Amino acid sequence: MTFMNILVTGGAGFIGSHTCVALLEAGHQVIVADNLSNSKAETIDKIKQITGYGVTFYRVDVTEEETVDNIFANHSIDGIIHFAGYKAVGESVEKPLAYYYNNIVSTMVLAKASKKYCVNRFVFSSSATVYGENEVPFVETLELLPTTNPYGETKAMSERILTDVSRANPELSVSLLRYFNPVGAHESGLIGEEPNGIPNNLMPYVTQVAKRKLDKLRVYGNDYPTVDGTGVRDYIHVMDLAEGHVAALNNLTEGVHIYNLGTGQGTSVLQLVVAFEQVNNIEVPYEIVDRRPGDIAECYADVSKAKRELNWTAKRGIAEMCRDAWRFENG
Ligand code: UD1
Question: Which of 102, 109, 192, 304 is the most buried (most CB within 10 A)?
């Protein structure tokens, strides 16, 4: 295997920081570009604490073309992993322009720099949200259905932009990674998910209820056609997801490749709550409330393509996800 110099945008964020750990542990060198809009500089030090290796850090906004150009001019970059982006679904409905601008322009700036500096590997952080309300399990060949929000649209559009750019410039190999529901934290408890304000996503909400920072979990609907009526998702441990990026980068071949990164297993909201309570021996009070607008009943991956082509599968189960999320909350 050849060791590479990888530019990780959004490398101080939740998935980005765990991916930096996995890249460094695999022997690669890492340059992080992050504006810290939803992350902290301390995370960069923690990556070093975990791995023993430092990263080169630039506090920059990836939508700024000249600034990004300077990074490429100063380093011999072999590959890009692009995480930087806004990711709150509800906020994207209220601030569509901010989402379209930030998430699309950053992809375009990086695609342009990749051509100028002959960087031939591009891994993009996409989401299972691009499938919309499709038939489960979601397989990469499904026709994408409209998502119900600007955030989802920015993911679908960025996928499209990178596909077209690679067609026009076949030297550029692209891997589009569609994440299912990343949760948990690094097992050291040093890095994890730190949402600003009240969390939107289930696991951080559960940990804050368990910690008594929030009074109780609101379970959004128990009348879905699922195992117990609550929403079913494919939760994936963030370190498995991080290792999926290393596999995608190491196995990148000519053209555009799409991979689901999930476990292939669906877990309902109540199953997750029970698992969390058992693993961590702590109570998570909850009440059932109305469905959340825009939610779908079930979302889980067909993971056979990633297994076949990347030789990657998720190794950690729900118990480890709950244990590590709780350890980070208490860290
Ligand atoms: C959400 C986004 C998705 C994004 C993903 C990133 C929406 C509608 N979708 O996915 O586009 O890619 O996060 O991680 O926001 N739940 C509760 N109570 C809560 C929070 C969630 O019952 O307080 C339920 C939801 O109804 C759902 C499940 O838990 O059934 C998971 O929700 P969440 O963690 O927000 O993820 P998604 O909605 O799957």
Answer: 192
Among 93, 144, 202, 222, name the best residue to mutate to test ligand 1's pocket (greatest count of ligand atoms within 8 A of Cβ).
202
186 within ligand 1 shell (Cβ under 6 A): no
**Closest ligand 1 atom to 269 CA:** 29
pTM, to two decimals: 0.98
Provide mean pLDDT across the span 268-286.
98
Ligand 1 centroid to residue 200 C-alpha, Å: 7
The pLDDT > 90 percentage for the chain reads 97
Q: Which of 6-15, 110-119, 140-149, 213-222 has the lowest mean pLDDT?
A: 140-149
Residue owning the nearest CA to atom 3 of ligand 1: 129
pLDDT in tens, 72-81: 999 999 999 9
- Please name each of the domains of the chain with its CATH number: 5-185+235-262 (3.40.50.720)
Q: Ligand 1, atom 7: nearest CA belongs to which residue?
A: 89
Residue 8, token pair as written in the block: 């990780």
- Per-residue pLDDT tens digits for 27-74: 999 999 999 999 999 999 999 999 999 999 999 999 999 999 999 999
What is the residue with the minimal CA distance to atom 36 of ligand 1? 201
Q: Which residues are catalytic?
A: 151
Question: Is ligand 1 within 6 A of the CB of residue 130?
Answer: no
